[in-house]
Amino acid sequence: MIKHDNVYLTPIELEDIELLNKWKNDEDVYKYLGGGYRPISVSQQRKWMDILVENNLENQRYIILDEDYNKVGFIGLYNISPIHRTCSLGLYIGEKESWGKGIASKAYRALECYAKMYLNIRKINLEVIEKNENAVKMYQKLGFDICGKHKEERFIDGKYEDLLIMEKFIMEDI
Questions:
Q1: CA distances, 108 to each of 5, 14, 29, 122 (Å)
Q2: Nearest 5°: phi and psi at 25?
């Protein structure tokens, strides 16, 4: 378990499927995420679970626990490159009552520390919908810089939205 500032990250377990499916099927939670909002059955999601529970050299995925050990979200590092020492970030808080409480920021800091100290990562990249202003502000407060934009990249709520590309060099903080 990865711990930081009363937030905990624990590897995904097969029994997390119901919770992950609940979040996947919530439009408010999923519409701004990379795969977009597409409700699926637990049976369909079960096919992906073997991949989700496998933390390997290329991908690391975790359930976010709050200070009371409630499962509230998901965070992961993807496309980890041991040569370039880079990776991409995926993050969401699935429990709406946990939105706005700083849990996502704390979870990110926990994963960043782990990435620096144990994975030797020097830079983390992410993509975020520009319209998702709360997420953009959070990432900027965490030290991410906007380094590009894909115009009209994602189809959300009946129209195309711009996608920001952000990055953070994390080794500068050591």
A1: 11, 23, 17, 15
A2: -90, 5
14: which 2 tokens? Answer: 């097969």
**Predicted local confidence at residue 174, as pLDDT:** 44
pLDDT tens by residue, 76-94: 999 999 999 999 999 999 9
Stated length of the chain: 174
Tokens of 173: 């903080």
54-to-49, 61, 128, 130 alpha-carbon distances in Å: 9, 8, 25, 31
Residue owning tokens 């992950």? 20
Q: What are φ and ψ of residue 124, in 5° steps?
A: -115, 130
Provide CATH code, domain 2-173.
Answer: 3.40.630.30
* Summary mean pLDDT of the chain: 92
